[in-house]
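Summary: Need help interpreting a holo structure output

Steps to reproduce:
1. Submit the protein chain below together with the SMILES for pyridoxal-5'-phosphate.
2. Request a joint structure prediction with the ligand placed.
3. Inspect the structure token block that comes back.

Expected: a single structure record containing both the chain and the bound molecule.
Actual: see attached output.

Input attached:
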Amino acid sequence: MHDIGTSAAAAAKTDDVMSRKPSELPRSDRINIAGPWVTQLEMDFVADAMANWYDKPYHYCEAFERAFADYHRRRFALMTPNCTSAIHLLLAGLGVGPGDEVIVPECTWIASAAPISYAKAVPVFCDVERRSWCLDPASVKQAIGPRTRAIVAVDLYGNMPSMAQLLELAAEHGIPLVEDSAEALGSTLNGRRAGSFGVGSVFSFHRTKTLTTGEGGMLLVDDEALYDRCRKLRDHGRGPQTPMYFNDVLGFKYMPFNVQAALGYAQFLRIDELVGRKRELLNMYRERLADLEDVQLNPEPEGGVNGAWITAALFGARYGVTTRDVIERMAAKGIPIRPFFYPLSSLPAYQSGPPFRKVATPVAEDIATRGINLPAAFTVTEQQVDTVCDGLKAVLRGSHE
Ligand SMILES: Cc1ncc(COP(=O)(O)O)c(C=O)c1O
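--- attached output ---
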């Protein structure tokens, strides 16, 4: 049985920061859609990284990687400049290249798919489940072909896919499954952390994410040979045994920076506080919107806990409004709302871009017209949640006061 993983304190092998009193939330009069919660701890760690530039050039990178891997019960971690490069690195490490196909959901941020095209492979867009908004195993089954080299399963908005079925399909066909957990820090499925599934997983520390380094990402893997390949590819093909400047493979420049890692490590030590606040926001929205019929917030099916990076809402067709209508009407009230992701294959980036293949994706197409993201910055107060919910109710019920 796979247990959940260590606590942040145990993973970091320190208790002192965890016993601090809770930090004060940042404040803003504006309702912000996304944004971080940075405290004195982060500032102290960053200052320390700057002060010890010569003595400990990778100290925080190594500490953050080790603790993050332990927390997710993974053997190895590699910090990267962002999550997009972590996906690219993992695909390269898996040997994905020209002529290969990689399965990816139609409904996700383009970063889940773009690295497939960087590798000169072909993304195959599949549908998502109505239940979870994540990759639909039935659609994947339809899409698997002789050239399929990997499956990218995305934990969209912290929701967990039907992982058991996806892993079974992957195993049956001998295809590695990659978990894009960029949006799922703090989510769990049947007691197992998001980011612990498949041959490897990736996280984003973009400035909008729950744990941020401004820009940043992490790649987690268990297989040592895969780790060695990815580590070498991360640094222009330089491994621990490579003679100075004698590169034997062509890699990338996806190295992390110690000052950013110091910020990330401090944020990681506060992970329970960060995820806890995001979940409070999700629960506030859930309570206040409970009386709206046919509005689904981040699904948390039996056995699933959502890390709640962002609160997403899918409203029923009965309301007779589209995502765009809601965004415009909420903007008129001064409330920022973001749309669900567009079906990727419909975007100009793919329509006039690199080759792709797709199967039917009716659910992804449907939910894109009825899905929104609600403000979830750490500055959002209970009062602001009230304002957002009152505004949304008025818009959906057709009263535009
Ligand atoms: C599902 C998903 N995958 C990948 C990424 C890429 O992350 P980054 O912006 O760190 O490259 C994101 C970022 O927002 C994302 O939401």
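--- end attachment ---

Reviewer comment: The pocket of pyridoxal-5'-phosphate is lined by residues 82-84, 108-109, 111-112, 154, 180, 182-183, 204, 206, 217 (CB under 6 Å). The chain has 14 helices and 15 strands.
Status: needs-info
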